[in-house]
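So, read this over?
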Amino acid sequence: MTNSNDRVLIEGQRIRTPRLLLRPWADQDAAAALSVFGDEHVARWLAPAVDRVPDVESMRALMARWAQQRVAPPSGRWAVEVAESGEVIGALALLPLPPDELDLEIGWQLAPSAWGQGYAVEAGHAVAHYAFASGADEIFAVVRPRNARGAATARRVGMEWVGETDKYYALTLQVYRLRKGDLHLPGPVGF
């Protein structure tokens, strides 16, 4: 499927924005992925879904497990790459939330060196477009109550806070939701 939605170009599993390319993970991405999943400032918010990754070999093993998981669209995992430089700066996932796997969770993780530049919001918008173009009606983000950065990103993506729950991951989490009709579409920008 090729779909252009203002600032988002969807070509199969590859999603482009003016500044980013979201693409499937490749084995050569392990060191860059470790700069995200091995960083204590990022990993502290990911457990129990993902524990802090200690080294490149462990990162490769985790990426191999991701590759073996069969998820149906719109679910997926993407490396977040700066289009201009090719540098992998983060990860984005759209996966069913445990325990019932009825709700779709969007999650973004960026290397601290990429924080504060709007990349997480841009990637979040892009995957929301992908999810809705693939038939999803709504997506959720779950955020630990003290994760102010994660909550702010969810709000900037256009998600609304709907409350707290302990339904997911056996933790008390803030829940944010974005419905297809509420997706903010910025003005057209050429590639």
Notes: The chain has one domain: 2-182. The mean pLDDT is 89.
